[in-house]
Amino acid sequence: MKPNILSVALVCILLIGALSGCGNQKAISLVNTLAFDIGDFQSIRLDYDADDIYVLKSESDKVVLKEYMNEDKKNYYARTTIQNGELLITEGDRPRRSGFESYIELCIPQDYSDSLSLHSTSGTVDTKIPLNLSGNFSVDTTSGMINVSDIKASAINITTTSGRAEGKGFTASALKIVSTSGNLTFDTIDMDTIYIQSTSANTTINHANGSFTYKSTGGKLAISDITGYGSFNASGEGSIKASFTDVTGDISAYSKNGSLTFGLPSQLEFKFSATTREGSIDTSFADLLAVTGNTAAGIVGSSPTVSIELETRNGDIKVSRL
Length: 322
Hints:
By secondary structure, the chain is mainly beta. The protein is built from 1 helix and 25 strands.
């Protein structure tokens, strides 16, 4: 009996110690602040593993990095280099245990207008202020969350593997979105070109202006209140739903197994063709089309200015003039 009593006592002592350790976990506080003169570089690149990254307004004319942690050790602090016109900021030798917590704030002065690149492998990347950049803006994460808004830049690049990305108010010459899975939600985009590449992500875009190129092997695309044109290709199970308020160029779309649903302006005049192997074709202007087998084609209006070409293998095609 005595060995059993000793064993129970030992377990109790260990449990009390573990619970006491949890209760004494330190709160997160500011442990490190770095300041940089913006004249020393033309781009900023942050590369962190698990930290949340918040972009805020600097209260000075310098770029300021603030690191918050629940443990204060100098070897945890950021490492920085300036080389070839780039300020690179990476995390220090952070512990990998679950009790360690940290996040960072990057404070940007109002007159900084060069390039900015933000990476957190599993953390959140959140811009809390508008950015007006003459250079490029890039943000990427593997499994974290991206929340970026009010961005003006030469080009905007958003990359995520399995995380989520959302934002609104983008203005640039080019927007590139690359995602493996997860959900993408964007609003109010004004671009020359919009490129979206997805494996199985669900993508929703509202109120956009630009030329679209969309490529996916799965997932759903839903775009609405669109001014522009483009090429849409879902080579796997994905579906495509697009509603245009103004069509400024040719539109082509292909889906292997998903549906194609398009809304077009009522005043638009266009050449039309739709082909499907196993699906159905349903339009609001069927009386203007000639149907041959699984193909419907014709001219809508007396002076067509654009062409609409839609094709599926197994999915349904539905087109309406709004």
